[in-house]
Every structure is written in C-alpha cells, then in structure tokens.
C-alpha cells in the first residue's frame, strides 16, 4: 500500500501540471479509488463539485448539485456522526454505517440528482467552514461489501494533504499559462461564487487598497455581477478585467490614475495647461472664457490634490 500511495502522489502532482481544473477533480477521484475503494463519491474543493458513480460510469458537474444546498444538507448529519457542535467545522475522517444518518446526509442530494445512492457505508472528510475560503470536503460511499474502516479514513486524510496542494498548484499553473513570464503581475482565479481560489500577492494587496474590509477571499457581489456582465470593473483605485478560462474568471488588476477621476473637459484643460499653453490660448482653443479655464483648473488641482503645474505634468507623464 505504501508503494501505491507514493505512486498516487507522484501521479497527482504530475496531472496537476497537465490537466484543466474541472477534469483534474475527476482524476483526483480516480486516484483516491486506488487507495480506498468506493462505489460513488461527491467531492468539493473550491467552487467545483464533482460526483462520480462507478456503476453507471457517469460524472456529474456542479450544476447537478446546487452548491448552496450542500452545507445545509450535509452538516446536520455529519455533525451527529462526529459529535461536533454546529459551530465546529472540521470533519473526520468520519466513518458511518448507520442507515438513518446516511439517509439524512445523502437523501436531499438524491432528490436533486434523481438518483438513489443506495449507500450502506459512508466515509467523509473535509471542512465545512462558513467563513474564509469555501468549504472543501469529500464523501465516499459503498453500496455493498465491507464497511469503511478507520484505517481507510487515515489513508484518505494523508492523501488529502497532497490533494489540497495539488489543486492550488493546478490553479496556479492555469493562471500562469496566461502570463508565463510572471512579470510584476496582479492576477487571480475567481470562481463563479466570487471567491479567489488562486491569487498573486499583488492582486490581494490591491483589492485590500480598494476595499478596506476585503477579507482576502471574496469580492463584493455587485462587483462580481459587473465582471460577469461587462468583463471589467473600475473602482476608485483599481480597475479589474476578467476573461473566462476552465470555468473560472481569470482576473487581472491595474491601478487607475487619479487623473481618470476628472471630467472630460477638465482632462482637456489639464493636458493643454501641462503642455505650457496659457489660459488665454486654452480659452480661445476651446471656445470658452479665460475665467472658465481658471475655474476648471482650480477643480483639477483640488481633485488631484496638487498645487503646481509640475505636479500636474508628473501625473500626466505616468498615464
């Protein structure tokens, strides 16, 4: 078994560099089956939920099981197995052969998927945290044969450490494929729930600059909606642009210049004045009075928090 475990770990990390995020989750389940036999599995890490049934040889994407339903469905039953209170989120490894509890855990999912799991034994492991990164867990079940045992639970727990690392590396590789040189970059992978599953340190720092209460994980719902709708978001300090890849929103941020806070007419006056054109010449060129030009420049200085033409020129030079 030690040799099989080592081979599975090697294969896991090898695949993490070759396979896209969604199919990589399915490959993980196949590797787990070499270590712990099962008839079916439900696996969630990040926003991706994969269900595999070995009898029907089918794989189901996250749309088959509403992700919002999962913690609500699984937690009560799993808490009873583990003896944990509802505020505690760590799971397992937990082994259960109590049919009533198994039905509590899998029954509602069966209603949504239209499949009777027929499970007689269950093995669960993971984390149902409600804050921070999204919950990540796995449930294996058997319809017949021997029940799961604690040794198999420990084996799954040991392999899970490598799963978490490999998934993180897999997302990083997917992100890096868009910028192999990895310049001073602010890029991240947003899942469909708006949670950052992988991110450059610079991106996290910039998001905290934009939103002082940013928790390091999730962008505001209104921002996520705008990113989905138009593919970009312009904030006070940063601009975000996204494109879809492998079921994720690849997000890149750049700092916006304070110059962009100016109105179009103010920008035009500022450009001309910074280039050495006088009030009178600007007024003549734009068809307004010199007094109007002076007022507009006063507004420019106030908005940019500057006090001289030199400071204005420096801001424009950085554009």
UniProtKB/TrEMBL annotation:
Keyword terms: DNA-binding
GO BP: any one term: regulation of DNA-templated transcription
GO molecular function list: DNA binding
Superkingdom per UniProt: Bacteria
The keyword DNA-binding is annotated on this UniProt entry: yes
Pfam family, one: GerE
Domain HTH luxR-type: 255-319
Transmembrane segments: none
Gene3D superfamilies: Winged helix-like DNA-binding domain superfamily/Winged helix DNA-binding domain (1.10.10.10)
Full protein name: LuxR family transcriptional regulator
Native organism: Noviherbaspirillum saxi
